[in-house]
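Practice problem 4.
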């Protein structure tokens, strides 16, 4: 049985977190599936396997639609963690058919391409304003001044969350997402539970207000979403709103700062982008591939599967390594090289299959808008200080990105 414990793969080691890609190369060279004892997971590092497993119905984001915890050989979460699990487990990202199918269909009625397209002018105007303020100040923290406020404001605007309440969203999101790291501590769990309770209570009040006075926002749309006699329950609406907020905050924020940090480390590519803004769409895709904000995605094995002669039994957990898959030389030519003009770029940073990111079109608009605004208004943007990386593995980002405008 192949094992990963004797390799450089160590998701708690600062050196690994600074640059996990050499360790991924070791994993890919070792095999297609490797058992990692510290988390009890089976690591899958190759692009072809990850892409196939994301679509394999023998795997699931949950197992509770088919098995009890006991039947699946798992221990139920501690009762004190229940508020987090109630919130998390009713979101479509952690559901399987038929509930996932029903909720995604209803959410899609409110979260339409037309809704997203209508937001474009707002996104671009906001990006321009944020970058203008950064330029006027002569620089600042790209994370807190541009990367963070843009997607937070956009998804809050979509949901109809009043501007005065928006500063509360990011701390709630960060505390909840702490539970997605490997082997989270009890302190992390307690913070996630507290945030889950507060966030849920806030959204209950907002939903009640929208029931009385509907608007043209997404919360009102979720209340109105109706299909073949089915509606979203209140808990499903709360969990959906939190999922959209968390995904918008964490993925887009981290993709922005990871991307600019990569550009500063590759000055030739940054110069090419500054010279030719038509590269922005392919640059967004390449930066998502090069240092993806979501490094690992988990699935439960619902029925025994075999990968390269290794049988992985029902009840096991598979960890698909998106960061490794996006650097697989079997798919990407010279994957360690940042190539903003890369044409063939089937990265899986937005996942695949039934759990493909519903917010991907919006994320692309946001990333392109902030990049375009920075290229237009801050053409002399430079790095002011070496950034510190967050001590997280699953959700990969920086603590900040200090920049100057000459």
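Answer key:
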């Amino acid at each position: 049985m192949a094992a990963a414990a004797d390799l450089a793969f160590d998701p708690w080691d600062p050196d690994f977190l600074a640059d996990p890609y050499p360790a991924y190369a070791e994993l890919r060279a070792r095999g297609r599936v490797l058992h990692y004892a510290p988390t009890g997971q089976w690591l899958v590092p190759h692009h072809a396997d990850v892409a196939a497993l994301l679509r394999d119905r023998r795997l699931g984001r949950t197992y509770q639609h088919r098995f009890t915890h006991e039947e699946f050989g798992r221990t139920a979460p501690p009762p004190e963690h229940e508020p987090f699990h109630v919130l998390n487990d009713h979101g479509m990202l952690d559901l399987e058919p038929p509930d996932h199918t029903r909720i995604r269909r209803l959410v899609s009625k409110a979260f339409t391409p037309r809704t997203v397209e209508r937001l474009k002018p707002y996104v671009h105007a906001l990006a321009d304003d944020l970058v203008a303020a950064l330029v006027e100040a002569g620089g600042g923290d790209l994370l807190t001044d541009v990367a963070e406020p843009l997607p937070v404001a956009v998804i809050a605007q979509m949901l109809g969350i009043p501007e005065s309440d928006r500063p509360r969203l990011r701390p709630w999101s960060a505390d909840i997402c702490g539970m997605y790291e490997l082997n989270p501590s009890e302190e992390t769990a307690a913070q996630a539970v507290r945030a889950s309770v507060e966030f849920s209570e806030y959204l209950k009040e907002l939903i009640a207000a929208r029931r009385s006075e509907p608007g043209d926002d997404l919360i009102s749309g979720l209340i109105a979403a109706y299909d073949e006699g089915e509606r979203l329950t209140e808990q499903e609406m709360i969990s959906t709103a939190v999922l959209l907020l968390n995904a918008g905050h964490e993925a887009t924020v981290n993709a922005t700062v990871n991307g600019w940090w990569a550009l500063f480390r590759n000055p030739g590519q940054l110069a090419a982008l500054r010279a030719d803004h038509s590269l922005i769409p392919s640059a967004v895709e390449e930066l998502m591939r090069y240092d993806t904000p979501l490094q690992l995605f988990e699935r439960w094995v619902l029925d025994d599967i075999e990968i390269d002669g290794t049988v992985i039994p029902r009840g096991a957990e598979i960890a698909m390594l998106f960061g490794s898959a996006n650097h697989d030389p079997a798919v990407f030519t010279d994957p360690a090289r940042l190539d903003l003009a890369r044409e063939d770029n089937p990265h899986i940073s937005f996942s695949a299959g039934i759990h493909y990111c519903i917010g991907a079109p919006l994320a692309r608009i946001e990333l392109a808008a902030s990049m375009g605004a920075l290229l237009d208004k801050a053409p002399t943007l430079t790095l002011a200080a070496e950034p510190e990386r967050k001590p997280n593995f699953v959700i990969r980002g920086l603590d900040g990105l200090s920049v100057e405008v000459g």
